[in-house]
Write a structure and sequence with these properties.
The protein is an alpha+beta fold. Helices cover 24% and strands 9% of the residues. The two termini are 26 Å apart.
Length: 68
């Protein structure tokens, strides 16, 4: 993890949650349902809050998520 002073020096952050036991919830039937992972969402929320406090303009923050 970086310090608050270093956070703006990193243009891209990759956070691998494999092995963290962050389990997905599945809504719907079979593989056709919608998936969500509240623990991963919390991580993203905390990063974005840190950026906005530093302050980084919201229009300069982008998010993407891998979908299996």
């Amino acid at each position: 993890m970086t310090s608050d002073d270093d956070i703006l020096e990193i243009p891209v952050v990759f956070f691998d949650t494999a092995g963290c036991e962050y389990f997905e919830k599945l809504e719907g039937e079979g593989d056709e349902g919608s998936r969500c992972n509240e623990n991963e969402a919390t991580i993203v929320h905390n990063w974005v809050e840190s950026l906005v406090r530093d302050p980084v303009l919201a229009k300069r923050i982008g998010l993407t998520s891998e979908i299996d």
